[in-house]
Amino acid sequence: MRVIAEDIASHPDWIMYHDIAAAGLGACWSEPIRSTSNRILGTFAIYRRAPSLPDEHELELIENAANLIGIAIERVHAEEELHLAASIYSNSAEAVLVTDANNCIVALNPAFSKITGYTLDDIRGKNPSLLHSGRHNADFFQAMWQSITHRGFWQGQVWNRRKDGEIFPEWLTINTIQDEQGNVQRYVSMGSDITNQVRSDDLIWRQTNYDFLTDLPNRYMFQDRLAQEILKSIHEGSLLALLFIDLDKFKEVNDTYGHPIGDQLLVKSAERINSCIQETDSLARMGGDEFIVMLPKLACTIDAEKVAAQIISALAEPYPINGETIYIGASIGITFCPDDACEVDQLINNADQAMYISKSAGRNRLSYFTQALHDEARNRLKLLKDMRSAVEKREFELHFQPIIDLSNGRIVKAEALIRWNHPEHGMISPAEFIPMAEESGLIVGIGDWVFREAAAKVKRWCELFHSELQVSVNISPVQFQSLALSITDWLDYLTTLGLEAKHLSIEITEGLLLNLTDDVKDKLLQFRDAGIQVAIDDFGVGYSALSSLRKFAIDYLKIDQSFIRHIETEQNDLALCEVIVIMAHKLGLKVIAEGVETEEQSRLLLDLGCDYGQGYLFSRPLPAAKFEAFLIKDMSAD
Ligand code: C2E
Ligand code: MG
Ligand code: MG
User: Fold this and answer.
1) pLDDT tens readout for residues 21-60
2) Are 284 and 259 part of one and the same domain?
3) For ligand 1, is residue 597 a contact (CB within 6 Å)?
4) Which of 170, 178, 273, 288 could form an SS bridge with 191, CB 3.0 to 4.6 Å?
5) Which domain holds residue 68?
6) How far apart are CA 506 and CA 451, in angstroms?
7) How far does residue 377's CA lie from ligand 3's centre (Å)?
8) Quick one: 264 and 182 in the same domain?
9) Rounded (10°) CA dihedral 437, 442, 444, 445
């Protein structure tokens, strides 16, 4: 508000400032300085020596002066802002391009030149469409302009072309600048080059959807495709087949020849399978040595069988790799949509189950999915569920099978063998549930129970009979590979029991030694250092060379029962057993023959120099109480 003080000495606003009046000032005429938007920026005042009032002309003068000052102040502000904007504009890493109302280029910043290669001289007055890569269709630009016109804004990814012709992805934001009437004056686009990001997105996409080794689609990609084909199959009423392929003996090849050769074999297998299918079919790698094939639009189920048979014979051809000739085979499971199922997971599961039937029927064959298979899988799931609580419910039992010193027929050892006393199904054999326990990882908890239970039992027998009995416990490779396996805990438990470690031994499989990691090696050494002996179970069925056992401080070899079974009639088996015994003794290992069922077998083994025998001839595995009675009987033979 304008304030006119005719005489400072008497004006009420000036009571506080009499000193100034005393300095010889009479009147003060002041006018507010306002911005164009009417904001107060300050005041403009004129002082006179003598008290007086302004006339009209003087008032106009004061008002004009205040207005001018207002404009001047605003301009300084605006220049400062402009300067700031200009420096952002020229230092920005983002490419800025400004066009006029007709979308003709009027300005650009250094980042724009750096990214596109164009200077302002190159493209002044031109339309930004000169940057078009040709990758977007008319609809794309129509949608872009619709957004710019209606919302004054567009944002998205664009493929543009640099001056040198290279196409690159850009993340672009386009804004409009309008005048007071709302007419567009400028279009300002700001873009950043996202080549690197897109490149890594692409890579991630490939890694997520394709198998690195064979370059085939992986499980995820395949599931997508299958989902689409299932819809088509239902819609068109056509038949679709799914073939689950698992290479036979691949693991052995990997273990024997090493992973690089295994990898080459997988690549070659993928090529062979591919050559058996048509362009409209799909092949994917599910992981490991598992492949899956989808055959859409089949005329009849037999067509799927023909393809499966072709794949089996293609994979059975010899593989010449690095001067070696390798043979493998394939087990295939087949299922159909819509006959067996119409869901992705269900179909894959079906084919997988059918493949397992081929495996257990002797491999290198194909099997169809059936309802019975489905029920069986259901039961397995139920069993797995029951297994989770079986330790707490005390449903497991340990049986003990005597191991006899062949030279004198006395019991010197026993093997602890687990049994599951299921409330509905009765006694379940370990052959049935151990693989499931391994797959699910439950074996770690179950195995812990086995070790402690076996230790407690052997402690009792050693005390009762002052014997040197040693009980062996089977340890699954899965237990060894699990971080949860704490051997220290077990050793502490033995100390608590007051049981010497020599009364326990462990049985491991050859496979464990073939895939020996440092962690597994450490665990084996921990057992050895504690004085717990180690036996190789089922020796002969795997691929480990006898000579390699020396490295691992193994104490016993248990010859697999399949070698003992025909020892009376098969010269070959007898000779093999003999070699194993001789070699083992040379390496300082003792030999236990498994599955000894007849007197004749026992005698032949003794003649070969085999140290111990285990089998139905001596005794079946017995519940603890019966085994105890067996021990008593054995002692009374003295
Ligand atoms: P394994 O360790 O090779 O055990 C020997 C198997 O041969 C036992 O089968 C035993 O009952 C059977 N057997 C013994 N003598 C004869 C014979 O004279 N003739 C025939 N035909 N068979 C005989 P079982 O008890 O069914 O165990 C099967 C497999 O389950 C075991 O093979 C072992 O690998 C595994 N297993 C058993 N208990 C455990 C355990 O507590 N933990 C782990 N991880 N595996 C276990
Ligand atoms: Mg065993
Ligand atoms: Mg065995």
Assistant:
1) 667 788 888 889 887 777 888 888 888 888 888 888 888 8
2) yes
3) yes
4) 170
5) 3-89
6) 9
7) 27
8) no
9) -120
The verdict on whether omega for the bond into residue 338 sits within 30 degrees of 0, i.e. cis, is yes
417 Cβ closer than 6 Å to some ligand 1 atom: yes
Residue 538 Cα: closest atom of ligand 1: 3
Does residue 198 sit within a domain? no
Q: Which atom of ligand 1 is nearest to the CA of 616?
A: 18
Q: 509 and 588 share a domain?
A: yes
Same domain, 171 and 320: no
- Whether 446 lines ligand 1, by a CB cut-off of 6 Å, is no
Q: What are φ and ψ of residue 21, in 5° steps?
A: -60, -40
Task: Return the residue whose CA atom lies nearest to atom 17 of ligand 1.
Answer: 595
The token pair that represents 370 in the structure block:
């059936």
Tens digit of pLDDT for each residue in 361-419? 888 889 999 878 778 778 888 999 999 999 889 999 999 999 999 999 999 999 999 99
CATH number for the domain that contains residue 179: 3.30.450.20
Q: Write out the two tokens for 85.
A: 């904007």
Tokens describing residue 15: 């009571």
Domain match, 115 and 82 both: no
511 lines ligand 1 (CB under 6 A): no
**Average pLDDT value over all residues in the chain:** 89
pLDDT digits (tens, 9 = 90+) for 596-638: 999 999 999 999 999 999 999 999 999 999 999 999 998 887 6
200 within a domain of the structure (yes/no): no
Domain count, the chain: 4
Across 582-586, average pLDDT: 88
What band does 320 get if pLDDT is binned at 50, 70 and 90? Answer: very high
3 state DSSP class of 541: coil
Statement to judge: residues 529 and 425 lie in one domain: yes
Q: Is residue 130 part of a domain?
A: yes
Q: Is the pLDDT of residue 296 over 90?
A: yes
The answer to whether position 387 is within a domain reads no
Does the reported pTM lie above 0.70? no
Does the C-beta of 269 come closer than 6 Å to ligand 1?
no
402 pocket-lining for ligand 1 (C-beta < 6 Å): no
Q: Are residues 458 and 434 in the same domain?
A: yes
Give the span between the Cα atoms of 349 and 366, in whole angstroms. 15
* Residue 333 pLDDT exceeds 90: yes
